[in-house]
Design brief:
The complex is a heterodimer of chains A (about 290) and B (about 325). Chain A is an all-alpha fold and about 290 residues long. Chain A has helices spanning about 15-25, 25-45, 45-50, 60, 80-120, 120-135, 140-150, 155-160, 165-180, 185-190, 195-205, 210-230, 245-250, 260-285. Chain A has one domain (about 10-55, about 80-180, about 205-285): MetI-like fold. Chain A is elongated. Chain B is about 75% helix and about 0% strand. Chain B is globular and about 85 Å long. Classes of the chains: A mainly alpha (about 290), B mainly alpha (about 325). At the A-B interface, helix 6, helix 7, helix 12, helix 13 and helix 14 of A face helix 1, helix 5, helix 6, helix 9 and helix 10 of B.
Chain lengths: ~290, ~325
């Protein structure tokens, strides 16, 4: 393979250096730990939740109970336990964030690689399309697409992914334009290695760092957008709990039951902060210009 | 200069055409009948057919597209299915409210962002600098709609200091000029804050970085060597140059602000374009949805154009052939 992964004799490999740098960054480690805790919570939600998220007992007696011993974060208007709903909601938010960003990264990397590597008319056309999509208020388009069809979870994931890839495409294209001119890529051409192999084995691995950073920061953004959609009633539909739709239901009784709208919002803030810290930390650790 | 502006305007036409086309096909190819809301067992099916013909919905999709585009080119936006009024008329009522809200939010976020960014840069690594960056991190990680609700709970419902919704009080019509303006200002406080604060946080970050870069340059050292006060060095010599990159942010934030207006207007029941769009989406009022999408696009394109022109005016190093 390329010279990038071959560490000099006795030296440390690239990823080892990155890991050491990351480990020394306290803020970044906080982000990483938070993100891991969030995933553990999401996976073990059924074990951790004190109640079933949709359990409704005697509604008249159990609705809008303030935070207390039995319901640490209170109950909503149907007498459901808010904490349990938030725990289950984390599964929805985290998986939508993760899968949508996966789609966006794949699409963006593909478009960026093809345009950057081959250039020419194809490059020009695709980049103008990217410019056009970036220029428009994204939420309007997302809302329109989801509203005219019915709000299904897979559709939300697909639409969020399909409207987030442009930044990655630009990023990858920019990286590839500079890598393409380097000697080791010219060498692969001279050796007659097919384009696809050059792209996947030699060019793309070198664009990985900025893409990882962008993906991490994007997850927070996608989680926020999903929350907005669910809050407007165009995202995840009740009774399935998602942070956005719990907040929306909390609007019915803001004064009397402030806890319903307050706590899921805190969950969103913690999650997005965690991803932003992690992303910033990764950027510092992956940037070779940061000297140790 | 004029040539540059004209060329930029011409270049934005294909962009808007693309948006119009995409919007049209998303809306029209989606399942669901726009006439669904008229269905009623007491209405004779033949009446439905008449309505369908009158709205042009019986034509093949490409005919509808060409007709719609032709009408659009003449500034004809169609008639709202729900309100039975020209879309242009409805937009003309709501657009000024949205412009007021987003305009003030833009001023607020640039103003606050620049001030905080300058403070953070001048006192680099101080307590203030760290506090600013932590607060900024939380503010742009926060869903705007949630912040809005929290502020409504606190300032409107618990403390009763600010009105929770609408643009003015019910009795605003009977107020004198100044009480009425004051009433309007009170209604603007929370929406403008909620809409602008997240971008203010990121403007502050950019401003800090930009100023720190400028401060390192030689001409600043010269200014200091001349014995100018630190205040004068920062405000008169460094700040103007550090502000230049902030102008490009203007173009970047506009799509965010206009998207953000949807949510903010919904929470504060602000009678603007965003709330109109949400209403139209829920009632499948296609002409309104398409027009609102397009108008949002026009606003962003116009804002970007303005930012580019401003950039060229402010920075003589920028050349436009």
């Amino acid at each position: 393979m390329s010279a990038i992964t071959m560490a000099p004799e006795g030296g440390r490999g690239q990823w080892e250096v990155v890991a050491r740098r990351f480990g020394r960054n306290r803020v970044a480690m906080t982000g990483l730990v938070l993100v891991l805790v969030l995933y553990v919570v999401a996976i073990f939600a059924p074990v951790l939740a004190p109640h079933d998220p949709n359990e409704q007992k005697d509604i008249v007696a159990t609705r809008y109970l303030p935070p207390g011993k039995d319901h640490p974060l209170g109950t909503d208007k149907f007498g459901r336990d808010v904490l349990s709903r938030i725990l289950y909601g984390s599964r929805i938010s985290l998986s939508i964030g993760f899968i949508s960003v996966g789609i966006a990264i794949t699409l963006g990397t593909f478009v960026g690689a093809v345009t950057g590597y081959f250039g020419g008319k194809l490059d020009w056309t695709l980049m103008r399309i990217v410019d056009a999509i970036i220029a428009f208020p994204r939420l309007f388009i997302i809302l329109t697409i989801i509203a005219v069809s019915s709000p299904k979870i897979w559709l939300i994931v697909a639409v969020l992914g399909a409207t987030s890839w442009m930044g990655v495409a630009r990023l990858v294209r920019g990286q590839i334009l500079s890598i393409k001119e380097r000697e080791f890529i010219q060498a692969t051409r001279a050796l007659g290695i097919p384009h696809a192999r050059v792209i996947f084995r030699h060019v793309l691995p070198n664009t990985l760092s900025p893409v990882i950073v962008a993906a991490t920061l994007m997850i927070g953004d996608v989680i926020l957008t999903e929350a907005v959609l669910s809050f407007l009633g165009l995202g995840v539909q009740p009774p399935t709990a998602s942070w956005g739709n719990i907040i929306n239901q909390g609007r019915d009784n803001l004064l009397g039951a402030w806890w319903v709208a307050t706590f899921p919002g805190l969950a969103i803030v913690i999650t997005v902060v965690a991803y932003n810290l992690l992303g910033d930390g990764l950027r510092d650790a992956l940037d070779p210009r940061t000297v140790e | 200069m004029i040539g540059y502006i004209v060329r930029r305007i011409l270049l934005s036409i294909p962009l808007l055409w693309a948006l119009a086309t995409v919007t049209f096909f998303i809306v029209r190819l989606a399942p669901g009948d726009p006439l669904a809301m008229y269905y009623n067992p007491e209405i004779d099916p033949s009446v439905m057919e008449t309505v369908r013909t009158r709205l042009g919905l019986d034509q093949p999709i490409h005919v509808q597209y060409v007709r719609w585009l032709g009408a659009l080119a003449q500034g004809e936006l169609g008639v709202s299915f729900k309100h039975h009024r020209p879309v242009a008329e409805i937009l003309a009522e709501t657009l000024p409210n949205t412009l007021l809200l987003t305009g003030l939010a833009l001023l607020f976020d640039l103003g606050l962002g620049v001030v905080l960014g300058v403070i953070a840069a001048v006192r680099q690594y101080s307590w203030t600098d760290h506090a600013t960056s932590i607060v900024a991190l939380f503010l742009y990680s926060m869903p705007g709609f949630w912040l809005g609700l929290m502020m409504i709970i606190l300032f409107a419902l618990k403390l009763g200091w600010l009105p929770a919704s609408q643009m003015e009080s019910v009795d605003a019509e009977f107020m004198g000029t100044f009480p009425r303006l004051w009433d309007r200002a009170l209604h603007l406080v929370m929406p403008v804050f909620v809409l602008g604060i997240a971008s203010a946080a990121s403007v502050a970050r950019y401003m800090r970085g930009s100023l720190l870069e400028v401060i390192r340059q030689d001409y600043i050292r010269t200014a200091r060597a001349k014995g100018l006060s630190e205040r004068r060095v920062i405000l008169r010599h460094a700040l103007p140059n550090a502000l230049i990159p902030i102008i490009t942010l203007l173009g970047l934030y506009l799509p965010y602000l206009i998207s953000g207006a949807i949510v903010t207007e919904t929470i504060f029941a602000w009678p603007g374009m965003g709330r109109l769009t949400i209403d139209a989406i829920f009632s499948r009022d296609y002409p309104v949805v398409m027009a609102a999408n397009l108008l949002a696009g026009v606003m962003v394109v116009a804002g970007n154009l303005l930012a580019d022109v401003l950039y060229a005016v402010v920075d003589p190093r920028i050349r436009y052939e």
